[in-house]
Protein: Flagellar motility protein MotE (MotC chaperone)
Amino acid sequence: MDKKSAVVDEQAHQSKGLKLFKVLVTIFIPLLFFLMLVVLFLKLAGLNPVQVAQSIIPGQQAQTIKPVGGTAGEIKQLNQTISDQKQTIQQLQSDSNKKNDQLAQLQNQLKQAQQQANQQVSAKKSADKAAKMQVYAQTYKNMDPSKAAAIFDKLPVNQAATYINMLDNKTKASILENMTADKAAQLTPLLQANSSAAASSSSSSGSATSLP
Structure:
């Protein structure tokens, strides 16, 4: 009987221990799960679980004031840094716009300088051509008409017309008289009035008639 009672007591003791273990497990596991959820939520919210736990404890509340103040100071400093960066970006944009304006002005000045250079080159070419034509006209004018006519006979019709139109009408007539009939006939439709030569000829003839 003693052995049976001892076994019964041992079984009863084990049963009580098992029930207590089940109760502890039933309470501890949900509590642990709840704490894990709280820690995860605090981390997602950007909070430090340790600091939050310290703030809950009365003796640690004074220590939590400093981190909060430090965080506000960091935010203020960050805002100031952002403001400074915005001002720097605006200044850089303003400098870039000024440089673009200066570049546009330089390009405009370069374009004007190129146009002036082209105009000067064109004017020089025209002056050189006029001077060359004057030399040709003066040369053929001073040449014997028969020799000039022999030269014009050998030139192409268009080229001969260009040279003979540089001369005054009197010189033209003298050269045409000494040219072959065929070449003179080809040149006749291409003859043009030379106003400058005619004016100089009329002025020279007027001055000659005024002489005694």
Remarks:
- Residues 143-195 form one domain.
- The helical segments are 2-44, 49-56, 61-142, 145-154, 157-164, 169-177, 181-187, 195-210.
